Structure formats: C-alpha cells, structure tokens
TrEMBL record:
Protein name, per record: Methyltransferase type 11 domain-containing protein
InterPro entries attached to this UniProt entry: Methyltransf_11, SAM-dependent_MTases_sf
Location in the cell: Plastid, Chloroplast, Plastoglobule
Keywords from the UniProt entry: Chloroplast, Methyltransferase, Plastid, Transferase, Transit peptide
Source organism phylogeny: Eukaryota, Viridiplantae, Streptophyta, Embryophyta, Tracheophyta
Coiled coil feature spans: none
Cross-referenced Gene3D superfamilies: Vaccinia Virus protein VP39
Main location: plastid
GO biological process: methylation
GO molecular function: S-adenosylmethionine-dependent methyltransferase activity
Annotated ranges, domain Methyltransferase type: 169-269
Pfam families: Methyltransf_11
Length: 343
C-alpha cells in the first residue's frame, strides 16, 4: 500500500492498481463500507458506558471519517437527532445536538477557539440574513434566471431519478427550502439538510416544525463544513447543492468531498450563477476573461464560466456532466462512476 491517497476520496493506492471510487482518476479503492442508516439516542456519558452496544452510524467523524457510534432509537429525523449524542471510537471525540441540529463541525463543542471563514460563508451565519432568506432574498434569484424552488426541485428530481429511494444529502441547505420539498416527495429513504450556518439551520428547524406534512418524515439537520463532510467514503446516494457553489471558500474542496462521500453510481446536482461575461473560447482573450473573473469574484461570491464547472467535476472524478441553463442560472448534474465490481 502506498502512502499517498486520492485527493477526492482519500483512499490509499495499493501497489497493484485496482479500479477505485474516483474512477477515472484511478485512485484504486476497492472496499466499500456498508453502513446502517440508523440514528439512535443516548447522551455523551451514556455513550462511554454503552460503547459495546452502540450501532454503526451513517454519520461519521469530521476528523477521521470513521462512522460514529451511538445507542438508542434509530431513524434519520429531527426527533431522534435533537436528543442524540455521538462518539467517534477512533478519535474519542463526542458530538451532541446543539439547539436543533447535530453539530458535526471539527470545532463542535470548543469553548475558546472560534473559526471565521470567508465572507461567502460568514454572510449566511448572520441571523438577519437567515431570517430574510426565504422572505425575499431567495426570490431575487429569479432576476438571474433561477426558476424558483418548485421548478428547481422538479428539475433536480429528474436528474436524481437513478438514485431514488436512497439517502439524499442537501448540502448548504440554508433554511431548508429544498430539503423540505425533497422530504415531502417521499422519493428518498431519508433527507439530510446540512449547512455551516447555525442560524440558517435554526430557520430550517422552525420552518420544518411549522409544516405538519413534515411531522413524521425522515428529515434531519446537521451542521458541517462542505470541505469536511461527516460521512464515510462511498456511503451517500445523492447530493444536492442549491445556489451554494459560489459561496464556498474552496469549491474544489467541496466538490471533492461530495465525490468522496457519494456511492458509485451516485448523483451530484447543483445550481449556481454563471458569469455575465460570455465564455470566451478564443485563446488570446482567455487571460482577459480570467482577470475579469478574479476581480469580480473576490473572496465572497464567485460567478462561473460554464467550462470551469465541467472541468471541476471531471477533476473530482465525476462523469456524464449534464446541465440546464437559463440566463445566468445553471443546474448541473454529474455522476460518480461505477467500478467493474459494482456491475
Ligand atoms: C445562497 S444559500 C443557498 C441555500 C439553499 N440551498 C438555496 O438553494 O436557496 C448558500 C448557503 O451555503 C451555505 N454555505 C456557505 N459556506 C458553506 C460551507 N463552507 N459549508 C457548508 N455550507 C456553506 C450558507 O450557509 C448558505 O446557507
């Protein structure tokens, strides 16, 4: 076994190459984890005593990506999540629900150290921004060609059809406008809304609670950074990321993480904003275009040239890139390739 691992899926390369989860990058992983999608209740002290009885968890440690352990009733839903505590048997770090979501950031539970991320992330941690997000802010995206949540869900579900029935992770779910719709569709065994913003997750929780149709659905809220997704490699069926790629501090780290956690055959669907500057394929003009984008994107929100999105997906091991475009709106879909072992 070599020391270096594949950047998207972090699996070590054996000396004799074998097909991997990130094919066509060929990082040579062959084993896949089989994890039960169970969440069970306990408190942190209890976990210490009951390690032996704990079950393997879909959610993993954000430090080492080992599946977390926990004990108690199962189910990926707010009711069990809100009373749950988890522990990594490898790192020995404990995680428990804070407020209304399970905090699975690396910094969860820290008292002194505080991490401030770039403004594309920090903006949405603001309580006012979180409050107005579904009360006017999101509606403004229509001016760039976004068709609106109902239509966007329909488009996304067309792309997500091959993964129907599995676990859907709504990365950067914000106030949960898509997580709620996905959960109500009953097309997935569970929906996990994941975001870095505590206030967005609180909004999501309030809006879920107000909707009686969501009372008994398998819908859970988790706090995590897209660059450190708390799932083991190859364990999630589908990932949706609505209007978020342009906010992430490092889109390549985010897409690589999504690639890592998706099962072979898993689907990634994302929407974002295209640059108002046309995609200039003429070589001599490309530096001008890049310079424009660097100046206008800055450290907060970036606007994409479509070829970059396709490039990024391919670099992270995705195939079958497809898209729907309207004005500056783009919805892209890419698939995690199956290895010969999966056929
Ligand atoms: C424009 S909102 C999109 C919300 C929703 N998905 C939608 O389609 O309207 C962008 C979201 O990305 C989240 N976000 C920004 N940086 C993130 C990060 N590093 N990890 C996870 N989520 C992040 C923000 O908190 C915010 O909720």
């Amino acid at each position: 076994m070599g020391l270096l691992s594949c950047p998207p899926c972090l699996v070590l390369r054996p000396t004799r190459p074998r097909p991997c989860l990130c094919s066509p990058l060929r990082c040579a992983n062959s084993s896949r984890l089989s994890v039960k999608s169970t969440l069970t209740y306990s408190n942190t002290d209890q976990i210490e005593k009951d390690d032996a009885k704990s079950q393997v968890e879909l959610l993993s440690c954000p430090i080492c990506f080992e599946p977390l352990m926990r004990k108690g009733p199962s189910g990926i839903n707010q009711s069990s999540i809100s009373r749950s505590a988890f522990k990594c048997n490898y790192c020995k770090k404990a995680f428990s629900s804070r407020d209304v979501f399970l905090d699975l950031t690396v910094t969860a539970g820290l008292k002194e150290y505080e991490e401030v991320l770039p403004s594309g992330t920090e903006l949405f941690r603001n309580p006012l921004v979180s409050f107005v997000y579904e009360r006017g802010w999101r509606q403004n995206f229509a001016r760039s060609g976004f068709p609106g949540p109902d239509e966007e869900v329909k488009l996304a579900q067309e792309f997500l059809k091959p993964t129907g029935g599995g676990i859907l992770l709504d990365v950067s779910c914000g106030s949960g406008l898509f997580s709620r719709r996905f959960a109500k569709s009953d097309a997935y065994s569970a929906v996990i809304g994941l975001d870095f913003s505590e206030n967005m997750l609180r909004q999501a929780h309030d809006l879920i609670r107000q909707d009686r149709a969501l009372a008994n659905r398998n819908l859970a809220l988790v706090r995590a950074d897209v660059a450190r997704l708390p799932f083991a490699t190859g364990t999630v069926d589908a990932v949706h990321a609505g209007a978020a790629l342009h906010c992430w501090p490092s889109p390549s780290s985010g897409v690589a993480e999504i690639s890592r956690i998706l099962k072979p055959g898993g689907v990634f669907v994302a929407t974002t904003f295209l640059s108002p500057v046309a995609d200039l394929r003429i070589g001599a003009l490309k530096p001008l275009q890049q310079a424009y984008r660097r100046v206008t994107s800055g450290s907060s929100l970036r606007y994409w040239i479509e070829a970059e999105l396709e490039d990024l997906c391919a670099a992270c091991g995705f195939i079958e890139y497809r898209k729907v475009r309207r004005n500056k709106f783009i919805m892209l879909c890419a698939t995690k390739p199956k290895t010969s072992e999966d056929d």
